[in-house]
Amino acid sequence: MTSNSLTSSSSYQKLVPLVVVSAIVLALGALLAPDRVWSNLLIVGFYLVTLGLGGGLFLALTYIANSFWNVGFRRVPEAMVGLLVPSGVGLLAVLAVRSQQYAWHPHGAGDAGTFWFKEMWSAPSFWMLRAVVYLVLWILLCRALVAVSRRQGHAGGVGLTHLNKRLSALFLIVYATTFSLASFDWLMLLEPMWFSTIWGVYNFAGMVQATLSVIIIFAILLRRRGPLHSTFTDDHLHDLGKLLLGFSCFWIYIWFSQYMLIWYTNIPEETSYFLPRTQGPWAPLMVVNIVLNWVA
User: Fold this and answer.
1) What is the rounded CA–CA span in Å between residue 78 and residue 150?
2) Nearest by Cα to 128 from 159, 102, 153
3) Could you give the CA distance from residue 274 to residue 258 in angstroms, rounded to a whole number?
4) Diameter of the chain measured on Cα atoms
5) In this structure, are residues 191 and 32 in contact, taking their beta carbons and an 8 Å threshold?
6) 93, 145, 163, 247: which has the fewest Cβ within 10 Å?
7) DSSP character string of 170-215
């Protein structure tokens, strides 16, 4: 193994202090402020799952579009798919252990009285079963995409390309439905009396932003370290940057569409989400959210 290998033992040893400190902070937080810790773990779990899923989405879209410009750095989104299994298991653990944080849960602190379909949809066993189904479908389809892509990289052949196009079409159909439902189940149901039909698209925009950002960061690092030195060019970087700029504008468009319509109609079931986020200590964070996702 070469000295500059990304998987060398020295590289892992550098992470040990970070892992130890993180474990200590997590343990202290679980003892002193368990609700806040578990809420943050939910956010982290969802974010990491979307990064893994975003890698699969990037592969599927490029295959469907019959594009070849990404071949030089395709291994980066393929590697991101590897996040799905560990982050998915971690997210399921958080959902199972802290499901009572959801107001609709029988042991939750909130009163989630609502119409019969939402009560049925929010039944704890059905809710958990859906989470497992979402993750299993994503993992199977994304891993299949990566497996065929790597076989094609080693063996070549047009047949494997056509196979991945069919897999990509199936993945996109499944993804479009399940990701919206998952964002409703895991995030929106934290406030079960709140409604927004654009929530799935809003999370999609954020997921694509995060995915493109991670691809850019690791592609640049891998070019500096050697593995992508001759394959990841400035043209690739410019293309990815333009994609990121486009989806940043798309994100703010979706964010403003949701906020403007809720502000204009002023329906209590909808304004209940934004009122606490535009007042008190949460107000500056809302501004930071806009700046980081659009301006920065």
Assistant:
1) 9
2) 102
3) 10
4) 62
5) no
6) 93
7) HHHHHHHHHHHHHHHHHTGGGSTT---TTHHHHHHHHHHHHHHHHH
Contacts (Cβ under 8 Å, ≥6 apart) of 191:
103, 272, 273
CB 145 within 8 A of CB 171: yes
> How many other CB atoms are there within 10 angstroms of residue 12's CB atom?
10
Return the DSSP state at 75. Answer: H
Q: Does residue 154 carry a pLDDT above 80?
A: no
Encoding tokens for residue 74?
Answer: 């395709």
Q: How far apart are CA 77 and CA 53, in angstroms?
A: 9
> Which amino acid is located at 90 in the chain?
G
Token pair 């699969």 in the structure block, residue: 56
Q: Is pLDDT above 50 for 3?
A: no
Question: Per-residue confidence at 1, pLDDT binned at 50, 70, 90?
Answer: very low
d(CA 246, CA 255): 14
- Scan for tokens 């654009």, then name that residue: 198
Distance of CA 201 to the CA centre of its chain: 13
pTM: predicted TM-score of the whole model, two decimal places: 0.87
Q: How far apart are CA 152 and CA 133, in angstroms?
A: 29
What gap in Å lies between CA 228 and CA 240, rounded to an integer?
15
